[in-house]
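Continuing the series of single-chain predictions for the mutant panel. This is the parent chain; the variants come on the following pages.
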Amino acid sequence: MRKHLQESEARQHKEDLFVYNVYRLEHLSVTIVPFFEANPLRTAKLEDFLKFRQILMMMRRKEHLNRDGLSRIALITQTMNHRKPSLYLESSEAIRQPTLLDGRVEEMVPSS
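Parent structure:
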């Protein structure tokens, strides 16, 4: 596995566990994802991997560069690894401009 993932930085985390740091989006797409597609995870992490792959494809299509795409990515990530709700979805910018998240125009101050 270490040989296959040669373009990343590897370090031993525990006796039988290595951590790989990847620095290029391209490396994820052409090396890491194909490796795990060829050698599927046999744990609950498989579902997270599939979501990760979906996000990676969205990023390759540059969907993360617009608010709608970034919101969709945030919604996916908050379902991964037993995560808490995304801070992006609760950011002051998203709260001030509710149309950024759901496409609806809402009154910021209720009318009396």
